[in-house]
């Protein structure tokens, strides 16, 4: 019972069965949400497979691209979760609602692991977003470091309209990117944010036409790969920590990272 309710079998589902494609080409890994006929709706199996990809990411990978097949990046969580039958082998919200709080929170934590690794300092993750990015789809785009979007993009944080909160790691990056007031506006209205607004408020780094999206992401990956790998990792670590530190703490962190860099580059053994 607990296994089915917890979606334990989601762990055993292959990447393909979880609705994903995954390719590694040298320093670039590409994850494609690949259930276009269901608008790349996501399940616990999707998040478990994403976490496994993160765990097994080859060391040489520096760039991770997340994209969607078909007309939408992702229509969010599989709506079968809201039905009594749920998603086969993964339960439903009504079955999950029977869990005690600790077990339930553990289940969400497992799902969040599919998103959190995309922020690792050793990689830069790029979401290539087109069409709808709703709920879990929006949060997956927010889990990435950069968002390059097609001009037909429509972001929507649908959860509050469905009686839920966004819980797949999206709230902090959203606030960091657009500020608390705009995040409240976007989430509590569950309205659509189009490409022009996404660019204007800092949700998207770049807007291109749908036909240019793949090339725009390739170009950004090439630019990112042109810098020194270890320096890029250390710099990302510094930038990620900057908001949580005072100027004094940040400058101290810069000194520590730079000492390590200069020693690595110039120390005579
Ligand atoms: N789950 C399961 N199936 C979905 C789906 C979803 N989230 N979204 C779309 N589909 C299915 C449709 O049922 C349809 O299947 P059939 O052909 O078998 O009928 C197929 O995908 C195509 O869908 P549409 O005909 O609706 O496609 P469209 O291009 O006209 O519209 C859309 C696209 C605007 C994304 C629309 O499908 C839609 O609104 N989907 C639901 C979005 C939603 O509410 N998602 C939940 C977000 S909240 C969340 O994600 C919560 C969380 O993390 C906890």
UniProtKB/TrEMBL annotation:
It holds the Pfam family ECH_1. InterPro entries: ClpP/crotonase-like_dom_sf, Ech1-like, Enoyl-CoA_hyd/isom_CS, Enoyl-CoA_hydra/iso. PROSITE patterns: ENOYL_COA_HYDRATASE (PS00166). Gene3D superfamilies: 2-enoyl-CoA Hydratase, Chain A, domain 1 (3.90.226.10). It comes from the Bacteria. Belongs to the enoyl-CoA hydratase/isomerase family. This is Enoyl-CoA hydratase/isomerase family protein. The lineage of its organism: Bacteria, Bacillati, Actinomycetota, Actinomycetes, Streptosporangiales.
């Amino acid at each position: 019972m607990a296994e089915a309710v917890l979606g334990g079998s989601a762990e055993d589902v292959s990447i393909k069965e979880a609705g994903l494609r995954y390719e590694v080409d040298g320093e670039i890994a590409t994850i494609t949400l690949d259930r276009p006929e269901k608008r790349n709706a996501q399940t616990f199996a999707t998040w478990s497979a994403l976490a496994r990809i993160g765990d097994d990411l080859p060391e040489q990978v520096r760039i991770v691209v997340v994209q969607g097949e078909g007309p939408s990046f992702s229509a969010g969580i599989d709506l079968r979760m809201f039905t009594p039958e749920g998603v086969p082998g993964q339960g439903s919200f009504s079955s999950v609602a029977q869990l005690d709080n600790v077990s339930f929170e553990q289940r969400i934590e497992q799902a969040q692991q599919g998103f959190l690794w995309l922020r690792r300092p050793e990689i830069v993750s790029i979401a290539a977003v087109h069409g709808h990015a709703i709920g879990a789809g929006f949060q997956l785009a927010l889990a990435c470091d950069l968002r390059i979007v097609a001009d037909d993009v429509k972001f929507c944080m649908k959860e509050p309209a469905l009686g839920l909160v966004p819980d797949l790691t999206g709230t902090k990056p959203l606030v960091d990117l657009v500020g608390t007031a705009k995040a409240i506006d976007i989430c509590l209205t569950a309205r659509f944010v189009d490409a022009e607004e996404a660019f204007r408020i800092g949700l998207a780094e770049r807007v291109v036409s749908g036909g240019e999206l793949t090339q725009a992401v390739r170009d950004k990956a090439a630019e990112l790969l042109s810098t020194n790998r270890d320096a890029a990792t250390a710099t990302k670590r510094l930038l990620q920590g900057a908001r949580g530190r005072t100027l004094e703490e940040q400058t101290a962190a810069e000194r520590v990272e730079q000492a390590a860099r200069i020693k690595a580059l110039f120390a005579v053994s």
